Amino acid sequence: MKKNFGDSIANKVYEYRVLAKLSQKELANAVGVSKQTIFVMEKGNYVPSMLLAFRIADFFNVEVTDIFTYLKGNDQHDN
């Protein structure tokens, strides 16, 4: 059986972007993705690749863990 851990990644992309007075499009261009990617990431509906997470952190000159937080879920079994 495949395990469903229920893990997720929370992020502070919105907060960092607003503090930097950037539009979603400006941040997207800076890190090489679409505006839609930034939009869904800020809404919590998209978990970025490690590469993108590092690009975003590098852009804001912070550690990845300052922006992205691992939220450990429960170890459950799919039926």
Automatic annotation (TrEMBL):
Signal peptide: none
DNA-binding listed as a keyword: yes
Pfam families to which the protein is assigned, alphabetical: HTH_3
Entry keyword annotation includes DNA-binding: yes
Keyword line: DNA-binding
Every HTH cro/C1-type domain range: 13-67
Protein name: Transcriptional regulator
